[in-house]
Structure formats: C-alpha cells, structure tokens
Amino acid sequence: MANKQGRKLEQHIAVFGEIGSGKTVLVSSFFGPYQEREAVRKRGLRVLARDPGQGNALHRNYLGMRDSAHVPSATRFDSTSYTFDIRLEGDRGNSRRRQHRPDATLVWHDYPGEWFESTLSGAQEEARRLETFRTLLGSDVALLLVDGQKLKDYQGEEERYLKSLFGNVKRGLLTLKDPLLENEGPLTQFPRIWVIALSKADLWPDLDVYAFRDMLIDKASDEIADLRDVIGGLVADKAALSVGEDFVRLSSARFDAGSIDLTQRVGLDLIMPMASVLPLERHLRWFRSKKLSHGVAKRLLDNAGPIAAAGQAIALKVLPGKYKALALLFNAELIERVAEAGKEQLEGVKAEATEKHDLLTATLAQFQLDLNAAERDGVILRSER
Ligand SMILES: Nc1nc2c(ncn2[C@@H]2O[C@H](COP(=O)(O)OP(=O)(O)OP(=O)(O)O)[C@@H](O)[C@H]2O)c(=O)[nH]1
Ligand SMILES: [Mg+2]
After folding, report:
1. What is the pLDDT of residues 251-302, one digit of tens each?
2. On the chain, which terminus has fewer CB atoms closer than 10 Å, C or N?
3. Which one of 24, 25, 266 would you pick to mutate in the ligand 1 pocket, going by the greatest count of ligand atoms within 8 A of its CB?
4. What CATH class has 9-272?
C-alpha cells in the first residue's frame, strides 16, 4: 500500500497444497467476489488482476461455480503466480497519477505439492522447480494446506495422511537446499511463518481451529518438528521461525450436491491480513526478543516499510513527524500496541483515519479487527511466541 512517502507495498503469500487440495478453487473464490457489482461498497476494496487473461480465467472459474455448480478443472503441475492490484475505496479520482497506481499489491504463489510428492522426470523439470521456488521466496507467509477431504478419507488414521504430507514438504525442501544456498548461504528472505490451513473446512463443521491444532499435535508433531528443523537449516536467524504454530480454517464455499454456495466462505477474508499484518507483528516481536538480529530485522522490516509506517500511525494515532522504515527498529514497541489494541480502540482509529482519508491506516486497522474477530470465532489461531 502506498504510504505518505509514496512507497509501494507488495506483499507475497505462498500457498502449498497437494493435488486436489483446493488451491485453484481458493484463489477463484478469493478473487471472484471482488468482481461483483456490490463488491466495493461491501468490501471497501477493489481487487484487479494485473494480467487480464488470468483475471478472466479466475472470474470464469468463479462464475462456473456460482451459476452452474461447475468446479474448475484440475491444474495439477501448473505453478502459477497471480498478481492482484488493490485499490482502497475512496482513492479513485484523487489525482490522475493515483488512478494508475494501486495502493497495494498481493502476489499469490501457488506451489503444487506434487513437486514435493513425485520424483521429477529430469534436469529440466528440476530446474523449473527451483526457478518456481525462487519466485516465492519473497513471501513472509506460507500457507500449507491440509486437505479436509483427504483427512476425512483417512478418518481414524489421519496420522497416515498427515505424516506423508509433512514428510513430502520436508523432503522437497531438502532437495532444494543445496541449490538455494549455493550462492548466498542462509536466506534472509524466506517464508518464516508457516500457517497450517485446513482446506475444505466445511467438511469439518465441528472442528474449530483449536481442535484442528490438537489433531496435528497429536498425530504429526514429530513431522512438524522435522519440517521446522529443515526450514531452520535454510534461513539466517533460525530462531525467528513459526512453523506449525499458526493455524487457520479455510473453506472456499459450501459444496452440496448440485450447488456451490460461494457466499458461505470461511477464512478467505483473512488472506490479506495474514499476508500483511501478521508478518509485521511477528517480525517486530522477534526483533524485540532478539530472535532476529539487527541486520535481518532491518531488511525484513524495510520491505514492510509502508505498512509498518501505517501500523505505527495506528499505534500512536497521530505520529509526530514522518517515520521511515528504519526508524521503526527503534519504535517497535509502538507497533506492538496495535496487536494489543482492543476492538473499540481499533474502531476509533479506523473511523478517524477514514475521516482523514488515510485509507491505508483505516484498512490496516480493519485487517487487525478481522484477525482478532476470527481468533474469537475459532477460525484462526496465532502463535504466542
Ligand atoms: N467441500 C469443499 N470442497 C472443495 C473446496 N475447495 C475445493 N473443493 C473440492 O476440491 C476439488 C479440487 O479443488 P482444486 O481447487 O481444483 O484443487 P487444486 O489444489 O487446484 O488441485 P490441482 O489443480 O489438481 O493441483 C474441487 O473440484 C472441489 O470439488 C472447499 O472449500 N470445500
Ligand atoms: Mg489447481
């Protein structure tokens, strides 16, 4: 999101999911509702696909589900990155220049889990996989999908599915380790927050996010610990990691025989907050608890500069003077107050920011409200560490 200094915010999110785990439906169900007539009024945001062909394909998937209960066809080994440009409501018409520039960009990387599952056919595919993996390294957050349907298929022996899922991701990352680290050594920028997501959560109406976490701890804690170790071997400051400490329930729609109700979504409105507010909050916490060294924190927070600046504004309501990303390192505790702010306080900040046409601050306050509400509703569970 563009801040007062005119810097651009680009947040990335990496979605890992095996065959049929719901990746294509998820991104279509995320994007489709923003194309509805009432979307801007209802959601306060405009979301456009930077590549119009890609946007049309997602929109078509959405319409096919909404109007004819037709699911998108399998995309299997396709790895796709979608670039979504976001404009905040009320922004249009401020100036001609602004009309051409989004307030924020969300880049959504689909990473097909099959690349972790199967042996690759040759050097060319190997190279393509590495290349694809490199594109998602800019993501602070990875969503690892646990397929709700598969979990059902293995009911009673869920550990078999879960162990194989986490084992595949771990082995896949291990095979990428040498080529990834070959030039620069341990990575600064790498998804450090691995949120485990229950996809198709509508199939598990009685499993709230706490029960989902308990199931994972009960049945796959060793595999999750191994995955964490492997990721720790890839990054600088490996104490600054949350792997399997954050959980979310996702459902792209309600699927009944002969109908798909896309108004019954769970967790999809948390994707943007998870990509933006969550890492900011976490990076600052890690920095304060000395899990992140100064240099690494500076690089990570520098990326989040604009959003961090707005976060700070939320914290202090009105900041004395203008802050740049660097100054944040010395004002980290201010932003933590955002995480601790109560509902009324955040609503107050939002109202005040809206009044002043400070849309970025208003939107971030809303994101924080969304995360807090979803936590109360048992949809998301954030790490305390
Ligand atoms: N109940 C339920 N079913 C879902 C949901 N999302 C997807 N599905 C079902 O899962 C199937 C596979 O979803 P996709 O989005 O195509 O899965 P994918 O991960 O893109 O799969 P590949 O392209 O094969 O890698 C869909 O055809 C739906 O039948 C959901 O939220 N709830
Ligand atoms: Mg697909």
Report:
1. 999 999 889 999 999 999 999 999 988 888 788 778 778 888 877 877 776 6
2. C
3. 25
4. alpha beta
